[in-house]
Design goal:
The protein is mostly helical. It has 10 helices and no strands. α5 runs parallel beside α8. The radius of gyration is 19 Å and the shape is elongated.
Length: about 200
C-alpha cells in the first residue's frame, strides 16, 4: 500500500540499539546503522529522525526493558529486602550472561562518554542511572532501616550494579561477577539486620 512502511520498525530499533550498545554513540556511523537495520538512509531518517534522535529512542527502549525487570525483582522488598536486592543484581547478571546482548550497560556507557555527547543524550543517560538509585530507594522504604541508611544502601547497590557492567566489559567471568555480588550482599545483610536498624546504623 502506498505510504505504508514495508519493514518492522520495532525490529529496526532493536538492531540500532544493539549497534549503539556495542560501539557507543560517537563510533557508530549512519552507515553502521543502515547496515544493521537493512534500511536506506532515507527510510532511517524518515522513521527515526537523525542519529541523536535515534539514540535517544534506543536509550528509552533500554530503560523501559530493564527498568521493568528491576521493578519486578524489587516488588517484595518490604517483606524480603535482602532477597529482593539479590534479585535486583540477578537481573544484571542475566543480562550480562545473555550472549545475544552486548556486554555492559548502555546507560552507564553513555554517561562515561557524556562530555563528548549531545547534551540531551548525556542528560537522559544520567536520568536513567538516577532512576535506578531512586528505584532502589523506594524499594527500601518499607524496611526498618533509617531514611539516611536507606539512601546509603540505595547508592551502594546502584554503584555495585554499575560496577558489574564495567567488569563484564573488561572480561570478568560470570563466576567472578557472582562472587562480587556475594561479597556486596554481606554489608547489605548487615545493614538490614533488625539489630542494626534498631541502632540507627
Amino acid at each position: 500500500m502506498a505510504g505504508r512502511k514495508q519493514f518492522d520498525v520495532d525490529a529496526a530499533l532493536e538492531q540500532a540499539m544493539t549497534v549503539f550498545w556495542e560501539r557507543g554513540y560517537a563510533a557508530t556511523s549512519v552507515d553502521d546503522l543502515t547496515a544493521a537495520t537493512g534500511l536506506g538512509r532515507s527510510s532511517l531518517y524518515g522513521t527515526f529522525g537523525d542519529k541523536e534522535t535515534l539514540y535517544l529512542a534506543c536509550l528509552e527502549r533500554y530503560a523501559r526493558r530493564y527498568g521493568a525487570l528491576y521493578d519486578a525483582a524489587l516488588v517484595d522488598a518490604a517483606e524480603a529486602p535482602l532477597e529482593a536486592v539479590g534479585a535486583f543484581f540477578d537481573v544484571t547478571l542475566a543480562r550480562i550472561a545473555d550472549r545475544s546482548r552486548p556486554d555492559g550497560c548502555l546507560a552507564a556507557q553513555t554517561v562515561m562518554t557524556a562530555p563528548s555527547l549531545p547534551a540531551e543524550i548525556a542528560a537522559r543517560a544520567r536520568a536513567i542511572l538516577d532512576g535506578q538509585r531512586a528505584r532502589l530507594r523506594r524499594a527500601l522504604a518499607g524496611t526498618a532501616v533509617t531514611p539516611a541508611g536507606q539512601d546509603d544502601l540505595a547508592l551502594y547497590c546502584a554503584a555495585v550494579n554499575q560496577s558489574l557492567a564495567v567488569l563484564s566489559r573488561r572480561g570478568c567471568t560470570a563466576a567472578e561477577l557472582r562472587a562480587v555480588v556475594a561479597v556486596a550482599l554481606v554489608p547489605v545483610e548487615r545493614a538490614l539486620a533488625p539489630e542494626a536498624a534498631g541502632d540507627g546504623r
